[in-house]
Amino acid sequence: MKTARELGLIVEGAMAPGPENAITDVPGVAVGHRSLRAEGIHTGVTAIVPHPGDIFRRKPRAAVEVINGFGKSAGLMQVAELGTIETPILLTNTFGVAACTEALIRRAIAANPAIGRKTSTVNGLVFECNDGSISDIQAMAVTPADACAALDDARTGEVEQGAVGAGSGMTAFGFKAGIGTASRRLRIAKRDFTLGTLVLANFGAAGDLILPDGRRPDPRRPASPERGSVIVVMATDLPLGDRQLQRVAKRGGAGLARLGAFWGNGSGDICLCFTTADPVDHEPASPITAQDRLSDAFIDTAFRAAAETTQEAVLNALCMAPATPGRNGRPYPALADWLQENPLQ
Fold it and tell me: Is 135 part of the annotated catalytic residue set?
């Protein structure tokens, strides 16, 4: 399969992508997948690891923006309150949240036996979308072992996209979709930074998709209410405070809107943004700590990168996913096939 850029879908903007055009272009960030395939099962887990150290003890600063809250994710309330994350981030199907949360808690305890006894508990962070249109979600196929396998698979560099990991059974705008990613290089005050985004795309009504060139692909599926979801995870090495991180996360909504999304009543649309700069120590050496922070006068660069990477990441999720039959036997076509059959005139 080919990426959106390779298929001629270029998101307008003056910002250049990183070397892999992926969230892993942010130094230290790694991604892993566990894909489950069996009779009636087309699901999995995707892991995003913010840095290679102990995340509980060196907590990345983060913020969450809930665009439309029809969802069953775990851990969002504490992120919103404290502005940090304490575990890797797992993506899965709706009924896999409990298994993934258990895996995160057990791994954190194994690395830090004082958790819950001599120190605080740990906030496992799991996001979900409903892949029941393709996979039998009632089978509850995702286990803690699958979550651990995705974490063990996490690596830097190229990210596998499309119908893989948590994206295995996801659809968007009537097409097969899944995992997508993109990045942008940022030049601010003669310093180089990166912002990368990974999405779990499972949203958008059939016929609503708008491509960067203005075309509106028809998946030849009957119209239905917007009841999907999308998870947007952004990573950056920009030094941002948690208020600024939430403002950047919010711009993921701009990228979704460019695609034709309107965030329907039954859609769970959530954006998380974290920075690898200035992590928070679980046991600070001093009661007062210093933090670098970008001046708000320069934050528009990050806003633009957030919108562009979200839009392109969703397009990559669509372009990299092959046609797949739904549980009722009706196929979810591949956007790549539609593009080949309907070349730009």
Answer: no
